[in-house]
Write a structure and sequence with these properties.
Keywords: Host membrane, Membrane, Transmembrane, Transmembrane helix. InterPro entries: DUF5455. It is found in: Host membrane. Pfam families: DUF5455. The protein is mainly α. It has a domain at 33-108. Helices cover 94% and strands 0% of the residues. It is built from 3 helices and no strands. Helix 1 (2-62) packs antiparallel against helix 2 (64-73) and helix 1 (2-62) packs antiparallel against helix 3. The longest helix is centred in the N-terminal third of the chain and has 61 residues, at 2-62. The radius of gyration is 26 Å and the shape is elongated. The two termini are 42 Å apart.
């Protein structure tokens, strides 16, 4: 019986160690991906907001009425919407790319 107990203990502890290592790696990769996506979104938002503000400021230099018209057409939410749109489609393309890589990898096995 002690041999069986040692065997079961080693099997379960080995499985628990493998599972902990696998889940830890998966969580670390997920956190890194979320951090990168968040940083890219914030950078894109700031860039688009700067470009929109520069466009509206440039429109005011031509004529105050032209600038007011452009300011009415361009919503204050434009920067966030454009950034979200580009980030969403970038994530979709990244997903498709990863699926294609996995399919190619499975064909080589």
């Amino acid at each position: 019986m002690p041999i069986l107990a040692n065997f079961l203990l080693s099997v379960f502890s080995g499985f628990a160690a493998w599972l902990a290592k696998y889940l830890t790696q998966k969580v670390a990769v997920t956190v890194a991906i979320v951090a990168i996506a968040t940083a890219l979104f914030v950078g894109m938002y700031v860039t688009v907001r700067t470009v929109v503000a520069a466009a509206i400021g440039g429109a005011y230099s031509f004529s105050p009425m032209f600038g007011a018209g452009i300011a009415m057409v361009i919503s204050p939410r434009t920067a966030g919407l454009l950034s979200s749109y580009v980030l969403f489609w970038s994530a979709c393309e990244l997903y498709k790319w990863k699926v294609n890589l996995v399919q190619l990898w499975t064909k080589t096995i």
